[in-house]
Amino acid sequence: MSDRRVLDHVGMNVPDLEEAVAFFSAHFAAKEVFRLPRIDGGTQRLGAPDDAAFALVMLDIGGARVELIQWWSAGATGEAPPRADLPGGTHLGIEVDDVPGTLAALESVPGVGVVGRPVTFAEGPTPGMTNAFVTTPWGCLIELLSWGQPQQS
């Protein structure tokens, strides 16, 4: 058995696959790596009911891969993902060159919500890092961040 452990991708459920692909492509220069068309049944090995169906698109965002998955299931509630402070709550951190500029551009996108304005940390474990938070039209929390230059003391 190999000891190799490498994060390959992060998967996230979305309510509309094409909308999510278009969002990440338009605003984060995501490139489609591959796509699986709708697959019906046989989804128990993925933790879903056997009568569920899914389709997915693997994206490359700046060298990191994000798998977007749309599900169809009779038991799906259609509820938004858990809040960030609850178990299961997640966010996607995307490094950008200009946090305030990217935030300003996203503010004009219908359905995008600004959760937190840019903050630049002067000390602690991330000196020089700037971040801000937005939600996508379907409720995914995204951290926009730039590592900047560490402060000299």
UniProtKB/TrEMBL annotation:
Q: Where is the VOC domain?
A: 6-147
The protein depicted here goes by the name: VOC family protein
Native species: Actinomadura barringtoniae
Cross-referenced Pfam families, in alphabetical order? Glyoxalase_4
Query: Which Gene3D superfamilies would you find in this protein's record?
Result: 2,3-Dihydroxybiphenyl 1,2-Dioxygenase, domain 1
Superkingdom of origin organism? Bacteria
Could you tell me which InterPro entries the record lists for this protein? Glyas_Bleomycin-R_OHBP_Dase, VOC_core
